[in-house]
Amino acid sequence: MESGWSWDQKSLIGELIQGMELTKQLKxxxxxxxxxxxxxxLVHGIISSYDKALSILKWNGPMSQPQxxxxxxxxxxxxxxxxxxxxxxxxxKGLKDPQDPRKESMKRxxxxxxxxxxxxxxxxxxxxxxxxxxxxxxxxQKDILGATFPRSYYRCTFRNTQNCWAIKQVQRSDxxxxxxxxxxRGKHTCSQGNxxxxxxxxxxxxxxxxxxxxxxxxxxxxxxxxxxxxIENIEKLESxxxxxxxxxxxxxCKDIVNGGFSHLAIDTHSTLGSYTQPxxxxxxxxxxxxxxxxxxxxxxxxxxxxxxPEPDVHEIFSANSSATKSPILDWDFPFDSEQINSNFPFNxxxxxx
DNA sequence: ATCATTTGACCTTG
DNA sequence: CAAGGTCAAATGAT
Length: 353
Description:
The protein is an alpha+beta fold. The chain has one domain. The chain contains 14 helices and five strands. It binds a DNA duplex through residues 89-97, 101, 105, 137-142, 144-145, 151, 153, 155, 157, 169, 245, 249-251, 254-255, 257-258, 281, 283-284, 287. One of its GO terms (molecular function) is DNA-binding transcription factor activity.
């Protein structure tokens, strides 16, 4: 952690800086009887920033401070309910293709892996996890010994076109059917990942993106998605309990996919109100289920933020979002060096090990 | 026609 | 050898 910071280190710094900035704002807000909403927004932003920071640390666990991170995640009362464990034993197996696949297999084995627990409130619709912002394609489902529900396997839609090897596994919990264990493996190297990373981390960047035709289109379609598709999918979900998917490009969510992305880049401002989690596809109950997209958190940094419908959900969100994003994205450092220098003394000796 | 999901077969790992 | 993971043909949706 000294020389040549990696993207995650930068992201970490960014998150911490953001947290500090938000805290400052909150401080100002508190001293000036401002709207409660504003405060809540700031608080959420702060929490999200720290969540992300922790996620980053967690993700780098083996390389940096595993114990420390582990402990942090284990703190009782911590909003982070992520199942910090790097999944026990699903080692990177499989992959048999004789030639190229071999390489791929190798890649996968060395790719980072992390697990998250996402909770969905099937009664009210979607609370908890929704899209993680990426497009996934289901490539398999398997009954797991001892598990009531089958495990679904997803890979990035852009695997072939952009050589993105991110994959995820979704397993519905036996104990709590509303909980899904999602194991991610590999970082997104596709453009989608880059896009999400940027839009989510920097409000400025996001604004910029909105001027960009392609991205703008995506955002619009995604917003629609949240309000419409969700409902449709939910109905299906209820009628077919054993199978439903989240976020991914599953059949039920296909529309989105065609746009190139599944969701995300949401301008929380206008969307939040009716913003519920989109996901659930008619297909498999345990499948795609995603976490709050990187965008949610990204908004955190901005003035407006995501408002979680219920405290309960909030916790889950925090956990998911944090864990989800960091690992997956190749975040570009969202802050201007100026900004950083002027506001945060991370250069100070001791800030980083 | 194109693309995503389903599902049985096959491969890898322990 | 069993279980988990992936492939790929069949099928479905748009």
